[in-house]
Amino acid sequence: VYEPRFILIDEVERLSPEHIGVLNSLMATGIISETKHGKTRELELDTRVFAAGIRVEKLPKDLISRFTRLHFAPYTEQEFIEVSQRVLSTGENTSMDNAEYIARTLWRLHEQDADVRQCVQIARLSRGDRQRIDEVLVALRKYGA
């Protein structure tokens, strides 16, 4: 039986109600239980849980209270550009110039609500072509939310 020392959860607010129940039980008692074919087995774990989420207010209050909550400030413009350049140049094979162009333009559109994932989408749609980048950005300005 695998007994993880740590559990890392991203987008914790997207967990199903069943998984939230299991997580809450684990964090409250250190015990998880499983019922199959009418038989229940329990496992005691010494596990630490780390989770990240944006809309954690959707989670049950008793679960939220089991975490130490940390709030991080949004990216500054320069941080957003640097992170976007790193992500796009390494993960999407985008030139640093195009990555910076995408990031700066998105920042102008959304400022602190700018999202690196949207930079990735633009890079993928444009396939490194500056004209396509501009076309995607024009469409975002016109039709984007």
From TrEMBL:
Report what the protein is called.
Uncharacterized protein
